[in-house]
Amino acid sequence: MLQTAEDIRQLNERIQAASSFLEKIEKEISKIIVGQQHMVNRLLIGLLSNGHVLLEGVPGLAKTLSIKSLAQTVNARFSRIQFTPDLLPADVIGTMIYNQQKNEFVVRKGPIFANFILADEINRAPAKVQSALLEAMQEKQVTIGETTFKLDEPFLVLATQNPIDQEGTYALPEAQVDRFMLKVLIDYPAREEELMIVRQNLTGIRMPEVKQVASTTEVLQARDLVRQVYMDEKIENYILDIVFATRRPADYKLEKLKPLIAYGGSPRASINLALAAKAHAFINKRGYVIPEDVRSIARDVIRHRIGLTYEAEAESINAENVVDEILRAIDVP
After folding, report:
1. In the chain, what are the domains?
2. DSSP letter string over 110-167?
3. Which residues contact 250 (CB under 8 A, 6 or more apart)?
4. What's the pTM?
5. Torsion angle, CA of 291/294/298/302, rounded to 10 degrees?
6. Strand 141-144 with 94-99, pairing
7. Phi, psi torsion values for 41, nearest 5 degrees
8. pLDDT at residue 22 above 60?
9. Spatial separation of the C-alpha atoms in residues 124 and 228, rounded to whole Å
10. Phi and psi of 2, rounded to 5°?
């Protein structure tokens, strides 16, 4: 653990140098994507902290395009899997096929063997496919037949789901949703941004190509630096207070939340909140975490880890409201 101001100063200098590729990535993505800064920022946090990201929003908000553009900026392999009700696990991870010339079964690897996986409309796949993806997300490995294959780093699942048109969808089980570091809600663009989007699509001019401006080596080195970002014990306790308040709200004078929460965040919520806060500090070229790093990322880390009761639904209270209430109640260090 860093102890002195000099250690933090040196780390700041290293972060300044190592984070330069992020500005290049953002610049390339902005060629294609108008606005949506929050979504792009969260995708970068997932990239830096080795955490999978789930994007939720109505169709047409550039979710798929943003993920594809991010993958194009990094010199890495990219796979897109369109999830449909008839998809099979073998369509994702691969299968054993018989080779007549060799008279033996050989492995045919599926699209999961890439660095960036775009799982489009993930909630349209049945449970068997979701469980196959779950092993890859959690264990960073895939089992085909009797052979287990390690997946290359970086390995990142960036998934989208549509909150409307729920016919023919399979709600993601809590165990799988919890594997996503962040669940990001995508909103409509501002009026000025949408005007730019309309004009951009009416010119008839070919959209600019997104160039590769970063390597997987830079990404992996940045991940190592993110974990070295200094987090004071007061910040650690602040994170624990936020997560524990989702489990035992009465201990934090939030008795009114008790009948609204069926279950709170798991230890994975604490781990991911700390990691995401460090990545947020890294993006802002700081070698130390401040409370605002935690507060700015808390909703995206916790919203999908809180189970709400029927009483909360009856009162039209969502996870956002609960997290906001907790952030207001917990003392900021």
Report:
1. 1-31+230-333 (1.10.8.80), 32-204 (3.40.50.300)
2. -TTSSSEEEEETGGGS-HHHHHHHHHHHHHSEEEETTEEEEPPSS-EEEEEE-SS--T
3. 258
4. 0.87
5. -120
6. unpaired
7. -60, -40
8. yes
9. 38
10. -70, 140
